[in-house]
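Teaching assistant here, posting this on the class forum so everyone can see the example we discussed in section. The complex has two components, and the goal was to see what a joint structure prediction looks like when all of them are supplied at once.
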Amino acid sequence: MPEDGKKICEQCNESYYVHELKCPSCDYENRPNVALAALKKPKLVLEKRYKDALQHAEQNGNLKKIKEFESLIKSSAKAVVNLDIDILDSIINSNMRYINTYQLQEIRTLTKHPDDARKRAAVDGFLFPNFGRKITFAALSLDGKGIRQYGNSTVVLKEKMIAYRASLLEEDSIQFFDQSGKMEAERLNGYIATWEDKHKLAVAKLADRTTPDDTPDTFVKILLDDGDGKNMADTKFIEIHVFGFFNEAAIESFSYFDEAKLSTNARTRKKQLRRIEKLKAQLKK
Amino acid sequence: MIQNVHISGALDRAIFLKNGDYFVKKLDHPSVPVRKFDINTLLQFGGDIVVVEKTKEQELNQLIQDQSDLQSGLQLAIEGIAPRTPINDKFRQPTIELLEEYLADAPIYEFAHTRMMSKPATEDTDIAEALRIAQAHQYTKAIQFYADLQAAQPTLQAFWTLWKEVTYAYFDTEQELIEVEDQLLENGTFAKINQRLHTAKTKKEADEIVFLVPQNLIGLFQKIAQQYTDRQGIKTKKIGKVSDISHEYEEEKVDAIEILLSEFDSKKENVFLHQTDVQVKKKVNNIIRLIKRNRFDKIDKQLIELINFHIKYSQREHLCKSLTKIATETIQLNQHDLAERFIHYAQIANPQDATPYCQQAELYKAQNKFNDAEKLYKTVIQKFPNDVVAQNGLAEIYKAQNNFKDAEKLYKTVIQKFPNDVVAQNGLAEIYKAQNKFNGAEKLYKTVIQKFPQNVVAQNGLAEIYKAQNKFNDAEKLYKTVIQKFPNDVVAQTGLAEIYKAQNKFNDAEKLYKTVIEEVPNDVIARNGYLHTLILAEKYEDVEAIIKNETSIPVSHDDWVFHHTVSMYYLKIGNLNEAIQRLKYGIKKSSVQEQSYYNTALAFALNKKGQPSNFQKALQHIEKYSIPVERASEFQLQQAIKALTHINLNQKEQAKKILHQLHEPATMQHKELIELINECIDVPPSVRPAKILKMEKSVLLLARAA
């Protein structure tokens, strides 16, 4: 077994610290976020939280509903990224790769917290030392819609393109550390997960919020709720960290909302609507 | 105020600095805070970024909208020719339909056109399909746009192949090349160059691309122009006279001079010494002397000597000045083809000097090629926005085209920018005069005279205004003052003679005209004035003697007045057949500008001849060329003859209608004529002939005044 905080290289079987970008022995590429979530300790704590949640549900006579929820997460939950339609168009029609949403302009958390630049840097520095700029932020969604605060269109990423390089965090990373107040590695145990364990994290987090009256439709909002689409403080969702970027080929589907927010200029509006239509056609898989 | 505004039209947004914090604003949305490095993202995704140093926050939305419109137009134009894929084909028609809407805005059309005419379309694009759809749906703007784009492709391909080859080793780093390319693309230089090359039929025209580029790239573009013409098989135009002396300029020699000029190393730092200046003047004068003596065979040798001297001792700018000086003299000697040759060399010597281009435009003007002159002046003004010569030159072209409105506007702009520019002020006064706005002209001339008491043009101009207003005493006095100050001023002398003539002081007029003709035998105004005086003084023998010696066949631009005056003489003495024959000849042989005078005069002659068929013909001639209302006195004359014709045809209503169209009477003759027309309309046909005769006399008087 490797020491604490270390992993075994899939290529050469040597051990190294999970935050390394490559295996120091064979240069085999590492995905530090996934490696961290796959460590024994976080997994054990998550497993405990998951089991506790199931047990609690059983006691409350809600186990069946929780299992239904868990099953839906396993089969249907996807990673969604919200971004501005103009940026998306730029990516699709000029073969650009999508980069970190935090490098884009539509981060409403910043509007809520004036000191958020500092906060963001601190959180990224803690979660992704040396590789923050290589992380794509996504959210776990059941209906293909995401956090509007990040942009007016949503793309659903193909599972096979991200599963091996994605990890999950209980909630929006800034909110997560705002609540805990401290940035300690221990704090992450049980609150991060690999893609395979996403259902466990969802159950651990949301079991208490489900009721026997819930249906697959209501599960959607339990898993991801972006409030009025304006304030980040109102959002509730499981944050996904995808190591690396993606391009058009990784997009499974696309949806656009908020036509009311389109330009008031008739010609510009027409152009924007045509762009949406074309993107829908281009991304219809 | 907000600062450091980065606008992306492609992303419909801007990032800016306000009170030390960065914000992003999306089109039609409120601003929200962002971080400084988000500008990098904007630069990465935003396509063309326009940076505005400072602006008002409330104006930002409109700035974004403007940039969004430009980029949308461009994007749609590109999508219209996107490669043939099912999705692209599905969206092609709606895309072009929307493009049509955007292209209706001239700035958007211009922007997209400039961008797309800068680089060749990639191989997988389909311009033909876009054009087909545009035609099928009658999207007129898109048709024009894509037709231009399709036609330009061969030139764009040829140019860019050449560009890549020539620039391969020209720039030190690739970054430098990219920067130059971006600059030339963004400011539309590539588009202009390709348009020029696309239409270039001669090497000279291809060479003109160097005029469009910054000073530091002239050498590079000279090479490109050279290789382009070689590859495209564009022949070197034989420059020189096309007439009997053209053979004296061998094509090889012309090329030798061009090559010599293109090899001029502008980087050397020579000090232009006084001694050099003296030598240059001497060489320039030698060449001018050769031209004056018609020793064209010797010019090339002297010219090569002059160029070599400049190469050795001075700079391109100095050589250009020498060549323009020679060109100026050559123009004055009416050697237009030869002048064109010197101008061409001057342009090669220093493409950054506006003078040879203005000279070329003046040459076009002298050849009645007003459209070419206008186009060239506009190019010069675009390149040298503060070149007052070009602006005044363009205003002159407008005037020559009877476009008084634009001429007036331009002169006023020049005066506003350069309040002491006498040429513009005199030019504006001329425009006022041409439109019978005598008060405005008088006031302006007086202002110039007050500021510049020695300005003879303004003084002669003012005297002209006095004359036009029948203030003969004032005019005479002023002309005499000018002659006293400038005894050799021919304009004042002929002007004074005109005044004598207008007051029927025929002897004085004759004497003065003779004096001028003795001094300047080729002075056309004096010669024509003299002939006219003899006609008025009824010295018919002298008139016949002049006519016998006439050399004005065929009619040329310079001597059409002489020919016209002779026709009018025959009209006056009642030899209507001779008059009509000559006027018909004038219509056939003169240039368009002069034909209106012949048509009007012929209409009058046909009226005098009588009979309804002649009156009908008269009407046809008047209607053949309608004199614009701005040319007030000529317009009035034409209208008077038209009224006369209608009276002869007993078409009272039409005659009355014309009276309403006539301008406010400016002269006594005109007032009287209107009364006569009125009388003629009202009297019964039996008593009309006497009245008509009186009216004809009045028309002739008006003609004299006009």
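For the discussion questions: Residues 140-167 of chain B form the longest helix (28 residues). Residues 81-232 of chain B form one domain. Think about how each of these relates to the inputs above.
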